[in-house]
Amino acid sequence: MFPVFIQRLPRELFLSFLYEITQLMPSLQRRMIMLGILWHESGLTKPALQARVEAQLGSGCFGIQPTLALARDIRIIRQVLQGAGYRLKYSRKPGSAGYQITDRPGLEPILEKKLLSAVAEVSPEQAEIFALLTPAERVWQGATLSDQLLAQAVRRLRQEQPEMKEAEAQREVLRRMYQVDGAR
Prior knowledge:
By secondary structure, the chain is mainly alpha-helical. It folds into two domains: about 5-100, Arc Repressor Mutant, subunit A (Orthogonal Bundle), CATH 1.10.10; about 110-180, no CATH class. The protein is about 65% helix and about 5% strand. It has helices spanning about 5, 10-25, 25-40, 45-55, 65-85, 110-120, 125-130, 135-160, 165-180, and strands at about 85-90, 100. The protein has a two-stranded antiparallel ribbon. A hairpin with a 6-residue loop joins strand 1 and strand 2. Helix 2 crosses helix 3. It is globular and about 45 Å long. The chain starts with a helix and ends in a 6-residue tail after the last helix.
């Protein structure tokens, strides 16, 4: 664990420092991204995990021996998780194949309640119609919804701060949504 004086640093300062370090050490950056993906998504197989990391960092981010690099990264991530009281397991069982972090905290009760109420609002007819859509149509529908929500949030922010330019408002909304310092 970090010494107390490091633990007391402002979160923004610590994250900024961590960002700078990851820029200097590509393997650390790759492992941090991989840890974040594994924490938020269960059931990713090795190729799927590798593809998700490459989508973030670009093709070739695992170097000239990607299988070996992935194995090293997983070994280090396992150690990190173990140090924090978690375990990374890999299952080959059909239907539940892939990586899973055991003992990960569940959803906060308020978020779980909101999700359950949102699911309750979906009618069986809506579910049947959605099931008829092709994967491409589902992706298009999700992307369209995401774009509309972003545009709405940008409009609201510009109403609150009329001097803000469109691009500036969009960056700020994306920063707030994804809790990052810069939006691509």
